[in-house]
Specification:
Layout lengths: L3 H13 L9 H12 L5 H11 L10 H13 L4 E5 L5 H9 L5 E6 L2 H13 L6 E5 L2 H10 L7 E6 L6 H11 E10 L17 H19 L3 E6 L5 E6 L2
Parallel strand pairs: 1-2, 1-4, 2-3, 4-5
Antiparallel strand pairs: 5-7, 6-7
Helix pairs in contact: 3-6, 4-5, 7-8
The chain binds S-adenosylmethionine (SAM) and calcium ion (CA).
Length: 246
């Protein structure tokens, strides 16, 4: 059994490494990155990752292994009409834009345009900016507006949700009408830095503690929702794929 000091050490490491919730060894994660991810990462994504690394909120970015996963997934499902809630500097957005066909579309929403614009030159240089329709502001009213028009119902092939965790269930209610039958909604950070299994009195950063109960609630609600099939993957900070079946 691990000594108490080792356990504490591990807890500290977990809090520091935002992109790893299940892999117990940093070396193993590094191995995945160096062996399979970085050598195949498109130049533009590498550049955007480096731009983002200099930004003070860089902890929010999608990890390179998750970016690779998203790209593969989008191609596997032949996604064309997609949506992203929570853009930040655009790493997952660029992964999506690169994976879509030339006439593919991404409706991208974020309350912060400045961070999007930090990554935009890289996205433009990659020649995929024409696929992106960026809307500045909270996502919920945009979804409500979309729902007013019947032709948007069941029109999205893929939706990536990576924003305010306390709104995920509000998004879910609306997104189920907007995604097509058999289409996918991916909810990001569903392991929430491993905090979903931490005892309530465990040391946690403030924002981790604040959103933790919402993430736990979401995970239970998704597991109980008969309108979807689900698969929760230990990629990045946990991503739950939901396939609409009703
Ligand atoms: N997917 C991004 C990437 O790959 O870098 C990371 C997104 S970051 C974890 C979360 C983002 O959600 C932030 O940029 C934040 O401004 C945005 N956000 C927070 N509340 C929001 C809301 N109500 N509507 C839209 N975006 C929101
Ligand atoms: Ca995320």
């Amino acid at each position: 059994m691990a000594s108490e000091s080792t356990q504490n050490g591990e807890q500290r490491r977990h809090q520091e490494v935002g992109h790893k919730s299940l892999l117990q060894s940093d070396a193993l994660y590094q191995y995945i990155l160096e062996t399979s991810v970085y050598p195949r990462e498109p130049e533009a994504m590498k550049e955007l990752r480096e731009v983002t690394a200099k930004h003070p909120w860089n902890l929010m970015t999608t990890s390179a292994d998750e970016g690779q996963f998203l790209g593969m997934l989008l191609k596997l499902v032949n996604a064309k009409n997609t949506m992203e809630i929570g853009v930040y500097t655009g790493y997952s957005l660029l992964a999506t834009a690169l994976a879509l066909p030339d006439d593919g579309k991404i409706l991208a929403m974020d309350i912060n345009r400045e961070n999007y614009e930090l990554g935009l030159p890289v996205i433009e240089k990659a020649g995929v900016a024409h696929k992106i329709d960026f809307r500045e502001g909270p996502a919920l009213p945009v979804l409500d507006k979309l729902l007013e028009d019947e032709k948007n119902h069941g029109s999205f092939d893929f939706i990536f949700v990576d924003a305010d965790k306390d709104n995920y269930l509000n998004y879910h209610k609306r997104l189920l009408d907007l995604v097509k039958m058999g289409g996918l909604i991916a909810y990001d950070n569903t392991l929430w830095n491993g905090s979903v299994v931490a005892p309530p009195d465990a040391p946690m950063r403030k924002y981790i503690r604040y959103y933790r109960d919402f993430v736990i609630e979401l995970n239970k609600a998704l597991a109980a929702d008969e309108r979807i099939e689900i698969c929760q993957l230990p990629v990045g900070d946990g991503v739950t794929l939901c396939r609409r079946i009703k």
